[in-house]
Amino acid sequence: MSVRIDGEISGAVPGGQGSGDGRLRRILRGPRPEAVPVLAARICALVGLLNVAAAVFPRFRHSRLHTFAEVLPGALGPFAAALALSCGVLLLLLAHGLRRHKRRAWRAAVVLLPAGAVAQFAYRHSFIGAAISLGLLALLLRHRTEFAALPDPRSRWRALANFVLLGAGSIALGLVIVSVHPDKVVGDPGLTDRLAHVLYGLFGFEGPVGYTGRTSWTVGVSLGTLGMLTALTTIYLAFRPEHPAARLTEDDESRLRELLARHGGRDSLGHFALRRDKGVVFSPSGKAAVTYRVVSGVMLASGDPVGDVEAWPGAIERFMDEAKAHSWTPAVMGCSETGGEVWTRETGLDALELGDEAVVDVADFSLSGRAMRNVRQMVKRIERNGYETRVRRIRDLGEKELDRIQRAAEDWRGTDTERGFSMALGRIGDPDDGDCLIATAHKADEKAGPYGDLKAVLHFVPWGRDGVSLDLMRRDRSADPGMNELLIVAALQAAPKLGITRVSLNFAMFRAALARGEKLGAGPVLRAWRGLLVFLSRWFQIESLYKFNAKFRPRWEPRFVVYRSSRDLPRIGFAAMQAEGFVTFALPRFLRRATAQRRPCPHRSAHTAEREVRAA
After folding, report:
1. Shortest CA distance to 406 belongs to which of 438, 432, 429, 433?
2. Are the beta carbons of 152 and 52 closer than 8 angstroms?
3. For residue 100, which of 17, 327, 342, 556 is within the disulfide window of CB 3.0 to 4.6 Å?
4. What ranges in 143-249 are assigned the alpha helix state H?
5. Do 217 and 78 touch, CB atoms closer than 8 A?
6. How far is CA 85 from CA 74, 89, 90, in A?
7. The dihedral sign for the CA sequence 562, 564, 566, 570
């Protein structure tokens, strides 16, 4: 039997008749269905670039490549320049959506391609151009099931972004159009005149630059087409129905709180799942959930799933199904080692160590000893300067004092935008967060300011029944250095009376690399990596957070990022920076304050918050 099988296999060697028939069948069968979106996107992008080039550069239109460009969708007879330009821009805009399997991009391409085919035949009698358009159309229709992704969450801000970006692109491309006819220009117009001509042309008016022959008409129509595309796409985005970003409903929040009450002690980041600017998917049994936010096409979860570990796979499967339905890139930021193992086992994703979380066991903490000398001396010096601390639960604060703390925390924020996503709750003093812990520093011997004697605030969220996790740290800029150390020590010393046995402090990115890279015997690669991290610490708190956390002699718990492919890491990193608030397109602070003052219930607001942590 084995001999016969070998003989059958040997009869299909490369170059034989069987191999040739197989290749022919593969060609006739067409590309694999899963490869069609990428192939269609590349064709659209190529066609778009060639059409734009053919419309803008006269030499390109009369080169050998013009023979190939003429048969592509968009080159439509006497209106070739303007129509090729518009078709090229539209196809370029569609390419990204087709690559992401978007249904609406597929619908637009299905409408655009036959229109291009009809125009090719009507204006140029070009059977080849029509055939290429219809061939791509047939490919899209045959594999229409591959383009089923739902739309992304959107808002009216997309219209403004489209107007700014496409408007800037139109001006830049318009300057090229105005400048590529040097032999047809009347006189010697400068850059200012050319820019004015572009701006006039985008609105459909004649500008100050003159041309001989029909070039003026061609340039004017091309500029007018760019302006029309910018206007139409902006109007469409402004008036289309909104598909709001995910938000926690009251029912979702209630279910999450029930899960945290039973299983919240497993993950120190569990309570941050209650941010109200996150969406949530539950397992079929309802015993586990994954919270997330969609940023720039990345479905970004944070921490471990909430709930029973045995139900995690069901919640993870729902998360992956949601990502597939919208063609979002799935990713997880800051999951624990156990969470990373479950994510990678259930989904086939990969994991990369992102950094370490500093956890202090209250029973082991003490200010005595040489290792704690610096912290001990700083705390004693601040106490001698007249500062006192108070550590309480949120529910034990009076309404006036809570309001003063909220206003102080807002005004003492060191950045113009709120920061935080994976390790920030986004609010202080919500009635439902009565178990949160707040540590405050006061100095009564000075003249009372707008917030009385309040000088610094630390806010902790519950970590199960016997732990808390640091949320934010704020202080008055005029207060003495060391407020953060003072309040952390105060919280650790008050923890036993409050039934707290463990405190999670800050997250230190790339902590292991920083620690190993400074040790004796570290290799050149590790030293170079540490040097890069130290250099980046000038803008991002990488080394300073590590050194600040290390003062309290914590144990380090690794945290991981889970991702699908290494080529997705740059995109995931950019989305994480947006989610954390390092890259933002938010309104200026004075406008946000004006909006916040009009809100009837600020304690229930769902605005984004930060985790801004500083070493003194």
Report:
1. 429
2. no
3. 327
4. 157-179, 191-202, 215-239
5. no
6. 8, 6, 9
7. negative
Between CA 488 and CA 584 the distance in angstroms is 30
Burial class of residue 398 in the structure, from the number of CB atoms within 10 Å of its CB (0-12 exposed, 13-18 middle, 19+ buried): exposed
In angstroms, rounded to a whole number, what is the distance separating the alpha carbons of residues 201 and 220?
6
Q: Bridge partners of 449?
A: 452
CB-based contacts of 583-586 (< 8 A; 24+ apart in sequence): 584/417, 585/157, 585/161, 586/417, 586/418
Contact 610, 415 (CB under 8 A): yes
H or E segment to which residue 43 belongs: helix 36-56
Any residues with CB less than 8 A from the CB of 10 and at least 6 apart, and which?
Answer: none
Q: List, in sequence order, the alpha helices (H) in 206-336.
A: 215-239, 250-263, 312-326
Contact, 439 vs 391, CB < 8 A?
yes
- Per-residue pLDDT tens for 275-302? 988 889 999 999 999 999 888 888 999 8
Q: Is the pTM above the cut of 0.85?
A: no
Residue with tokens 């800051």: 334
Residue 449 makes CB contacts below 8 A (sequence gap 6+) with 476
Q: What whole-number distance in Å separates Cα of residue 77 and Cα of residue 315?
A: 56
Q: Which residues of 555-593 are buried (b: 16+ CB within 10 A; e: fewer)?
A: ebeebbbbbbeeebeebbeebbbbbbbeebeeeeeeebe
Structure tokens given for 333: 């930021």
Taking CB atoms within 8 Å and a gap of at least 24, the contacts of 319-323 are 319/281, 319/290, 319/292, 320/347, 322/281, 323/299
User: In the numeric block, which tokens belong to residue 373?
Assistant: 């000398």
Pairwise CA distance, residues 231 & 421, whole Å: 35
Distance CA 54, CA 280 (A): 48
pLDDT tens per residue, range 343-388: 999 999 999 998 899 999 999 999 988 888 989 999 999 988 889 9
Nearest to 117, CA basis, from 131, 132, 130, 135: 130
Please give the Cα distance from 234 to 119 (Å, whole number): 26
- Distance of CA 133 to CAs 71, 100, 293, 509, Å? 9, 21, 38, 50
Handedness of CA 10, 11, 15, 19 (dihedral sign): negative
Which two structure tokens, joined as six digits, stand for 254?
Answer: 């209630």
Within 64-190, residue ranges assigned H as helices are 65-69, 80-99, 103-119, 127-142, 157-179
Higher-scoring residue by pLDDT: 205, 298: 298
Taking residue 245's Cβ as centre, other Cβ atoms within 10 Å add up to 15
| Length of the chain measured in residues | 616
Question: H or E segment at 181?
Answer: none
Structure tokens at 210: 């003159």
CA 211, CA 309: separation in Å to the nearest integer? Answer: 73
Q: What is the pLDDT of residues 437-487, one digit of tens each?
A: 999 999 876 566 778 888 999 999 999 999 999 998 888 888 888 899 999
**Structure tokens that stand for 427 in this block:** 């609010």
Q: CB-side exposure of 431: number of CA atoms within 13 Å?
A: 5
Tell me the C-alpha distance between 203 and 451, whole Å: 53
* CA-to-CA separations, 409 to 177, 338, 421, 486, in angstroms, rounded: 53, 34, 17, 17
| Phi, psi angles (nearest 5°) of residue 506 | -75, 165
Contact criterion met (CB below 8 Å) for 328 and 297: yes
What amino acid occupies position 478?
S
Measured distance CA(528)–CA(517) in Å, rounded:
8
